[in-house]
From TrEMBL:
The keyword Transferase does not apply. Keywords: ATP-binding, DNA damage, DNA repair, Nucleotide-binding. InterPro entries: DNA_recomb/repair_RecN, P-loop_NTPase, RecF/RecN/SMC_N. PANTHER family: DNA REPAIR PROTEIN RECN. Residues 2-507 form the RecF/RecN/SMC N-terminal domain. It comes from the Bacteria. This is DNA repair protein RecN. GO terms for biological process: DNA recombination; DNA repair; SOS response. One of its GO terms (cellular component) is bacterial nucleoid. GO terms for molecular function: ATP binding. NCBIfam families: PRK10869.1, recN. May be involved in recombinational repair of damaged DNA. Belongs to the RecN family.
Length: 556
């Protein structure tokens, strides 16, 4: 679960350090006080989008750090190991900064990570349902993704999409082969001739540097020999040779150092110089032994360079680009050869289609029972959400094969008894859509393995008895995992295990957001405010205490 959240200079938050509890927690306060800002900050730490507007005015950067208990899942542990990350004492700290220029950085347990890695980790840690999440359920792709997630068919859906792409690729090649067999033959012949020329040249990019280095050495061999001989003579021949002189001078200074220790540094320097000069002498002798004039080899190297340059000019590329050109031509030739036999391509296309249809059939088989279960569960939930007699159905309508399978997924609803089922976008009013969307989110979250569920004003558009039911649903979820909910409804907040009030305050001419954990009396006052507005009466407090299961003094 989420242990703590630390926020610095984020929108209207200057500094906040929050410790979270288990169960169901409610975040309440006036509109615009900054309730959703806290969730935006958490979303940023989880790899969400961020920009310079999130940095508090006048500050250099915004910083958010969220500490979680590491999920006890083998797959997550394996993922951490693959990324070179680890969980410290069973904890995981996700940190994110955004500077005033919009540049962003992320860390997991102190190690720098990409935003993709932050998002991947966040998918294991928390699931955020935004206040407009129910609108996304009107989109066909969102409905299909939700059903596939419920059916645990995400990998199979990805496999189906890949097989469909391969089938379509082979179908396109088949069509091209039948349409332009003569032109393809001419291009194959030209490519074959060009590739043979490059294969005979047998050139690779690494050889080019070696050829130029060898040519430089052979072309200047006379000067290299002369210079090496001259240096060898100066270092090692005669009484005045440098190596002998350094050894003699080193011995002389060593003797004098016996009288004056102040010469010790000079003695060490001369000794080191003598050793280095002697090493240089031996290295230069080995080099000189290998050095010789070789005009035949020089001509061979020059001929090789000329051949490479001529070929590169012919095909209008730099010499080092010839191997890449050869690779591209080879790939093109293989593609053309693959399209040279329409009958073979037709067989390959048919095989790819069978593979797709087999996987798509398995996807359909996985979707059908999941669709039935989800339909029954949402229909049952609608009966408690002031939609008695209403029905919900996940329809699977057969269609022509697509990358998404052999059927179109559509959420259909009948809001009242006796009505026919139609697509959600056509029949659901705003309030009905909110309630149905909330029911779907709660049902899907119930089956999720994510330890922290966050709902941001998902109860918009409901009230009264329905709000109490929503609060009960969220409280039930809170028995098994951590649930956080930003809400304006006292019926929902009253069902929470703990509650924070978020409010605006003025400090030094700035508007800032403040978070206050509420005790029993504080919760009564806050629920009363949510019930009665600005003026809180004794009756309002009594009603609030009753909702919380306490008397007006705060005693349970």
């Amino acid at each position: 679960m989420l242990r703590s959240l630390t926020i610095r200079d984020f929108v209207i938050v200057d500094r906040l350090e929050l410790e979270f509890g288990a169960g169901f927690g409610a975040l309440t306060g006036e509109t615009g006080a900054g309730k959703s800002i806290l969730l935006d900050a958490l979303g940023l730490a989880l790899g969400g989008r961020g920009d310079a507007t999130m940095v508090r005015a006048g500050c250099e950067r915004a910083e958010v750090a969220a500490e979680f208990d590491a999920p006890d899942a083998e797959a997550f542990t394996c993922w951490l190991q693959e990324q070179g990350l680890g969980a410290d004492d069973g904890g995981l700290i996700l940190r994110r900064t955004i500077d005033a220029g919009g540049r962003s950085r992320g860390w997991i347990n102190g190690s720098t990570v990409t935003l993709a890695q932050l998002r991947a980790a966040g998918e294991w840690l928390a699931d955020i349902h935004g206040q407009h999440a129910h609108h996304a359920l009107l989109r066909a792709e969102a409905q299909r993704a939700l059903l596939d997630a419920r059916a645990s068919a995400g990998p199979l859906a990805a496999e189906v999409a890949g097989l469909h792409r391969e089938w379509q690729r082979l179908a396109r090649l088949h069509r091209e082969a039948e349409a332009d067999s003569a032109g393809s033959a001419r291009e194959r012949e030209l490519l074959g001739w060009q590739l043979r020329e490059l294969e005979e040249l047998a050139f690779d990019a690494g050889e080019w540097d070696e050829l130029n280095a060898e040519h430089s050495r052979l072309g200047h061999a006379a000067g290299l020999i002369e210079g090496a001989d001259e240096t060898l003579a100066a270092l090692g021949e005669g009484d005045l040779a440098l190596c002998s002189s350094l050894r003699h001078l080193g011995g002389r200074i060593a003797a004098l150092a016996g009288y004056d220790p102040g010469l010790g540094d000079v003695r060490e320097l001369l000794t080191a110089a003598a050793i280095q000069a002697d090493e240089a002498l031996h290295a230069l002798r080995r080099y000189r032994d290998r050095l010789e004039l070789d005009p035949l080899r020089l001509r061979a190297v020059e001929a090789r360079i000329a051949a490479v340059l001529d070929t590169a000019r012919k095909y209008r590329v730099a010499p080092h680009e010839l191997p890449e050109l050869q690779r591209q031509w080879q790939l093109r030739l293989e593609t053309l050869e693959a399209t040279a036999d329409p009958a073979r391509l037709a067989a390959a296309e048919a095989g790819a289609r069978r593979a797709f249809e087999d996987a798509a059939g398995r996807l359909t088989a996985a979707r059908q029972p999941a669709a039935q279960r989800l339909s029954a569960e949402i229909t049952a939930a609608m009966q408690t959400l002031a939609m008695a007699g209403g029905r919900f159905e996940v329809a699977l309508r057969p269609c022509e094969p697509t990358a998404h399978g052999l059927e179109v997924v559509e959420f259909q609803v009948a809001a009242n008894a006796g009505q026919a089922l139609h697509g959600m976008a056509k029949v659901a009013s705003g309030g009905e859509l909110s309630r149905i969307g909330l029911a779907i989110q709660v049902m899907v979250s119930r089956d999720s393995a994510v330890p922290t569920l966050i709902f941001d004003e998902v109860d918009v558009g409901i009230g009264g008895r329905v709000a109490e039911i929503v609060g009960t649903l969220l409280a039930r979820l809170g028995r098994d995992r951590q649930v956080l909910c930003v809400t304006h409804l006292p019926q929902v907040a009253a069902r929470a295990d703990w509650q924070w009030r978020i409010a605006k305050l003025e400090r030094g001419g700035e508007t800032l957001s403040e978070v206050t954990p509420l005790d029993a009396d504080g919760r009564i006052d806050e629920i009363a405010r949510m019930l009665g507005g600005v003026k809180i009466t004794a009756t309002t407090r009594e009603h609030a205490a009753e909702m919380l299961g306490r008397d007006a003094s705060g005693r349970a």
